[in-house]
Amino acid sequence: MNILELRDLVVRHEGKTILRVDSVRFEQGKIYGIIGPSGAGKSTLLRVINLLERPAQGSMHVFGTDVDLAALTHAKGLPIQRQMGFVAQKPAMFHASVFDNVAMGLRYRGEDRAAIRPRVLAALKLVDLEHAAGQRADTLSGGEAQRIALARALVYEPPLLLLDEPTASLDPHNIAIFERVIQTIHQTRRTTILIVTHNLAQARRLTHACLFIHQGRIVECGETAAVFSGAACRELQDFISGRMIC
Amino acid sequence: MLFPPDVWEIIWLSLKVTTTAIAIGMLIGIPFGAFLGLYSFPGKRLIVVLVYTCMGLPPVLVGVIVYLLLSRYGPLGSLSLLFTPQAMVIAQVALVTPILAGLTMSAVQEKERAYRETAKSLGASPIQLIATIVREARTGIWSGAAAAYGRAISEVGAVMLVGGNIEHHTRVMTTAIILETRMGNFPAALQLGLVLLAVSFLFNSFLMVGALNQWKAKRR
Questions:
Q1: Distance CA B112, CA B101 (A)
Q2: Of A119, A146, B28, B103, which cross-links B144 as Cys (Cβ 3.0–4.6 Å)?
Q3: Which CATH number belongs to the domain containing residue B25 in this structure?
Q4: pLDDT per residue over B11-32, tens digit each?
């Protein structure tokens, strides 16, 4: 069953088309890797799905609803946005405690005060940072901040999780924790996960399927094993082998 | 008693006028500054330039304009506010509102870039989004309030013009200092100057403690 489908998507920046997707579907409960060189349009794709960026045209079928992405306002898109979690490469921490940062999404949703505390503590436990609940979020290390950002996106249990190069600047210890959490929530909650990554080993380890984006187009899409073992297009072969592409 | 009763009266009036002006200025300047910091619209650049220009308005000019507005034949002359504490409040509001709006705008703009997408991706509604960004900008807004308070309480030109420095009625610390200096009573002028400095110090300390407590209350 598809959780998300994009159709006829065109994103333009200053008149230049930077992403064009005719059609792409994402099945519920799978982990998808989005790979490709820098500037290919990977992050833009994730931002469009998370309604952070309005495309020039395009529609999205998500959670059983059809939406015209080009005409969607913040208020109208809110019910959809609230079913997604998003972690950026460099997440901004609010100037508050770790607890308050993680609780933010629940407060936005009007959750009961008594219900927030156990859910926040459970999310912090998931990322091995329950001891940091009272700590100021701006005193965290980069790796800890990224794990808090993950807990912040997971606390309201979204069925769709979007991760934009979440481990790009992390050390191996934090990457291991991050990947363990992703696998845990996928197994326990059947969360659909889209992860933009430059780490091809990570894409192999974590994902069921991969999309290769090059120059604003999805060039190849398929099961991860097939994509890595039998890349059909030249650009993907070059990308996987580490040769430069432009 | 530290000071004679009439000095207490002057100190009290100074605090009353300035605090009222700051409160009104905050009610106007902070929402206006937040709006400028958060939204883009045609003509915004011109309004921003005007706000920045007004941040440095000469107090005497403000005094003259308010004087003309409130004078008997001015458009607001029927209110009979000239040479009253209310007229001094109006002049100070005109002086501090652009400061509060301009500094709020800068603080909100700075935080907007960092927090708009984070709050939005966490499911903030449009109103929650604005509240979050303004809350994140609170340190800058407090600083703006402190700067505005300092400007208002130390201001002399406008309050002298529209208040008239009338004993037991519109005499405040700054106008009293001028008067004492002209009379050659330098110790009294210096004494009032020190009180002015102490008030500024106390107000800034109060703001800092307030910001600190707010942050502590947020912690678990």
A1: 16
A2: B103
A3: 1.10.3720.10
A4: 999 999 999 999 999 999 999 9
Q: Are the C-beta atoms of residues A43 and A211 closer than 8 Å to each other?
A: no
Using the Cβ of A105 and the Cβ atoms of chain B, whether some distance falls under 8 Å is answered with yes
Chain A CB within 8 Å of residue B217 CB: no
Across the interface, which of A81, A86, A134 has its CB nearest the CB of B220? A134
Which residue carries 């883009």 as its tokens?
Answer: B40
What's the token pair of residue A36?
């490709």
Q: Would you call B136 and A95 a contact, using CB atoms and an 8 Å cutoff?
A: yes
What tokens does A217 get?
């187009």
Domain that holds residue B117: 5-218
Find, in chain B, the residue whose alpha carbon is nearest to that of A84: B121
Distance in angstroms (rounded) separating the CA atoms of residues B25 and A238: 62
**Residues A93 and A101 sit within 8 Å (Cβ to Cβ):** yes
- CATH tag, A2-89+158-241: 3.40.50.300
A211 φ, ψ (degrees, to nearest 5):
-115, 130
d(CA B143, CA B156): 22
In this prediction, residue A246 has a pLDDT band, given cuts at 50, 70 and 90, of low
Non-local (6+) Cβ contacts of A166 within 8 A are: A87, A88, A89, A146, A149, A150, A178, A195
**Mean pLDDT for chain A?**
93
**Tally of structural domains, chain B:** 1
ipTM value, please give it. Answer: 0.92
How does DSSP classify residue A30? Answer: -
